[in-house]
Design a protein that fits this description.
It is a single chain. By secondary structure, the protein is of the alpha+beta class. It has two domains: about 1-20 and about 275-295, no CATH class; about 30-260, no CATH class. Helices cover about 40% and strands about 20% of the residues. The protein has a seven-stranded antiparallel β-sheet, with no helix packed on it. It has a five-stranded antiparallel β-sheet with strand order 1-5-6-9-10, with no helix packed on it. Strand 5 (about 80-85) and strand 6 form a beta hairpin. The radius of gyration is 28 Å and the shape is elongated.
Length: about 300
């Protein structure tokens, strides 16, 4: 009986130890929303396209679904979003306000010019009026009401975010440029500034338009404010991959997926007691088998 009990104990310990060695399934993130009255979830399902704030659409593994922070307007008045915890790490992802621009605007523009060298090269040649128009258009398109398609936070503090957006924003920019050219060529504007100034402005707008057309797809994600353990970051990207689908409400949005990530801090693995016991049991079984083999030789 004692021998049987010992075998059962060793077998149980071995199973527990091997389970610990193999690993256990990742636990679901603890996610809570703040400002949920201004947050909507996109389901990609006909007849039930938009629902309230729902964390399952952040972690369902489906890029077709997303959670929009500050729904209904691109004039973001407050930082609304969600907070997630994993292990000792806490991360908040929020919409971005005009006040936040003072913190990240200069770096964002620098990154934009680094990505699009032709735009950087022509920028000094543009009239300030055209520069202001372009910045206004860019910041509106790269606005602070992000659609978070996927979110992940692991126990090392590593963060991965995927945002749904436009694969090529030239589609949205073209009407803005066309309107600017119409206004610059209007009789009222010519009477106000003179024929020469009107023609000079038109030429400047055309220079911007030609430069943008030469660059291929214009890609810039929306922007999310990400606070990782108290440290603020601004998540955005100028590189998209084709999503393979579009939004069912406008037939245009969500054609591109943008990714942003932040590395965690690797944690040195310390074996659990059950793991050590299991490994000892494995070692004991091998040793016993070897002794038996030597005895029978």
């Amino acid at each position: 009986m004692a021998g049987l009990t010992k075998k059962v104990f060793i077998g149980t310990s071995l199973a527990a130890g091997l389970s610990a060695v193999v690993g256990t399934p990742a636990q679901a993130l603890d996610i809570t929303f703040h400002g949920s009255e201004n947050i909507k979830s996109y389901t990609h399902q006909d007849g039930n396209l938009w629902v309230g704030a729902n964390s399952s659409y952040l972690t369902d593994g489906k890029l077709e679904t997303n959670v929009e922070l500050w729904f209904g307007s691109e004039d973001v008045a407050a930082n609304v979003g969600f907070t997630a915890t994993a292990g000792a790490h806490t991360v908040s992802v929020e919409s971005v306000t005009a006040a936040d621009w003072a913190e990240y605007g200069t770096k964002w523009l620098g990154d934009l010019f680094t990505k699009y060298e032709p735009l950087n090269n022509v920028w000094p040649q543009l009239d300030k009026t055209v520069q202001d128009m372009a910045i206004g258009a860019f910041t509106t398109m790269g606005s602070g009401d992000p659609n978070i398609a996927e979110f992940n936070l692991d126990e090392t503090g590593a963060v991965d975010i995927k945002m749904a957006g436009w694969y090529d924003l030239n589609t949205k920019l073209d009407p803005i440029i066309a309107q600017a050219k119409t206004q610059a060529n209007s009789p009222f504007f010519k009477a106000l500034v003179g024929q020469a100034a009107s023609q000079a402005l038109l030429a400047n707008i055309s220079l911007l338009e030609t430069t943008l057309d030469s660059m291929g797809p214009l890609q810039m994600s929306e922007i999310a404010k990400v606070t990782i353990n108290g440290e603020v970051h601004y998540a955005y990207s100028f590189d998209a991959v084709k999503s393979g689908f579009v939004a069912k409400d406008d037939g245009k949005s969500y054609s591109g997926i943008y990714s942003w990530n932040h590395a965690g801090i690797p944690v040195e693995s310390v074996p659990e007691p059950s793991t050590m016991l299991g490994l000892m049991a494995v070692g004991g079984l091998f040793a016993a088998a070897k002794r038996k083999s030597n005895h029978n030789a």
